[in-house]
Amino acid sequence: MSRNMATVNENPRQPAPSHFMATSGAQDPVWIHTEPYSNRPRFPALDRDLDTEVCIIGSGISGIQTAYELVTRGHQVVMIEARDILSGETGRTSGHLASSLDDGYTNIAQKHGDQGALYAAQSHSFAIDRVGEIVKKHDIECEYRKLPGYTISQWDRRKQPKKHDEDVKMLKEEVVKAKALGLPADFKEGFSVKGWDGEPDQRDAAVFEGQATFHPTKYLIAVLNWLKQQPNFTCYTHTRAMNIAEKGIEIGPIGTKSVEIKTLAGHTITCAQAVEATCVPLQKLSVIAEMEFDRTYCIAIRVPKGSVEDCLLYDSAEEYKYVRLTHCDDKDDYMVVGGCDHKVGQEEPIGRYKEIETWVRERFPQAGSVDYAWSGQIFEPVDYMAFIGLNPGNKHTYIITGDSGNGLTHAVIAGRIIATTIEGKPDAWASAYNPSRVTSLLKSGKELLSHDLQINAQYKRFLQSDIQDIEDLPNGEGGVLNPATKSPMAVYKDDEGKVHKFSALCPHLKGVVCWNRSEKSWDCPVHGSRFSKDGICVMGPSKGGLNAIDDSGKASQQEAMQA
Ligand SMILES: Cc1cc2nc3c(=O)[nH]c(=O)nc-3n(C[C@H](O)[C@H](O)[C@H](O)COP(=O)(O)OP(=O)(O)OC[C@H]3O[C@@H](n4cnc5c(N)ncnc54)[C@H](O)[C@@H]3O)c2cc1C
């Protein structure tokens, strides 16, 4: 195979334990090509108790954007992060800023009514522009640009005309709905994307003008560097929140409550308001039970500069492909293509990148080498809208979760809603995103039930063993050893053959984790918590990691945390 056709490596070597403090998988995302991990600002770990007005937990786009909106309004903000900044899904995103929503306005209106769909359309349009305003104000070089977004049928219009026509009908309905909500949408017959010269001969598209894209970590690092200079902002990394509880009594306007956040190192942060910007909230059930958890896969493949139209592109498949371009070097751009989603811990990751690569090569014959391939996690609320606002049952603890594939714009919306609400002002969009909403969730009873059954079925892993003997494990792999008489053990053998052992029970609700060969992680099929090969928690709702049960397991956890 010639160099420019280098294909994807689906099963990399195991990285050092510290790698999982920078990102949530063994595979690196394309963003480090022009913005390496070493460019990310560093902050100390919290080494004492402290008081602040607002404590934000998590330093992805939700945390940083909310901090920005609060700090610019004059509030005192402390942000804490369990690992390094941007180590969560934000560092592994694909970076579409879209008001053409993944779930579609027709579906959203069925659950939330036309008013809810209108708020969704308005708020995502706001988010696209808000990022543009911040980019302009702070002169941030991050490839931010407005682009059209195209959604096309997944079917060949000549070979599968019936299915193609069904898709076209659905796309046309979505355009009509979006137009009625004031969005610049249109349906273009005979449309084709410049540079799509291969098969299938794809025509016709729903076109949304006014979408945008950017380099996510360049943007957020610049915002964070600005925040770092503000007297009312402080950040602590390697500081993991283990417990978040409201203290005191408050009945109506009488009394005051504060929030106490306990960290893994034993320190307490006391604040008037807390924001869980942890991608998924750190709780047992509540909104956790109202979401599905999926892995999604991306590759960055070279295409000669100018050979493919600069646009956002999606197809109509259930596990749809999503496409955009980003700068690679003087000669090439990277085409970032994602898709092939599946439920966390329930399917084999190997083969997904290859499938995406084949999809690209069939359609874009000019594509060159695949230089990056990585996966990440997304969350689907059963009623399609993110959960942004007060955590159910709390008065001063906010959550931001349920990205629905549009987590970047949701994060920007969250920044506005939470800052406005903390100031005691009304926000028109708050009700649509309210985590305690009832009506749309009641309308989703059927989906909730089948989701519950699916989740509970994952406890079957209590009766299964991936390996019968540690000897059977090849170097560089992991598996669960489930002796009938003892608790299941998560075992991995490093590339040199040394064995490391952990409890296989997820600390969240005791699901038995699965080995993810591609990302060298342990993934819980019950509620989507994930842990590095060394048991470090890289995705909630679990707050903590897997218990190490031998000295080499403990040593690799120590090495990660001291990085
Ligand atoms: C491959 C992929 C492609 C995507 N593409 C798009 C797209 O094109 N457009 C779009 O809008 N959305 C997209 N999304 C979704 C979007 O990227 C995410 O929804 C968004 O980045 C989530 O940001 P966040 O800040 O909420 O969470 P994160 O970025 O995950 O940040 C959460 C942070 O909280 C920290 N944390 C967790 N627990 C604790 C704790 N106990 N104490 C302290 N800190 C803690 C984590 O370490 C992490 O750094 C995509 C997602 C993926 C994975």
TrEMBL record:
It holds the Pfam family Rieske. The keyword Iron-sulfur applies. Residues 465-546 form the Rieske domain. Coiled coil: none annotated. The keyword Iron applies. Gene3D superfamilies: D-Amino Acid Oxidase, subunit A, domain 2, FAD/NAD(P)-binding domain, Rieske [2Fe-2S] iron-sulphur domain. GO terms for cellular component: cytoplasm. It comes from the Eukaryota. Keywords: 2Fe-2S, Iron, Iron-sulfur, Metal-binding. Residues 1-20 are annotated as: Disordered. InterPro entries: FAD-dep_OxRdtase, FAD/NAD-bd_sf, Rieske_2Fe-2S, Rieske_2Fe-2S_sf, YhfW_C. SUPFAM superfamilies: FAD/NAD(P)-binding domain, ISP domain. GO terms for molecular function: 2 iron, 2 sulfur cluster binding; metal ion binding. This is Rieske domain-containing protein. The lineage of its organism: Eukaryota, Fungi, Dikarya, Ascomycota, Pezizomycotina.
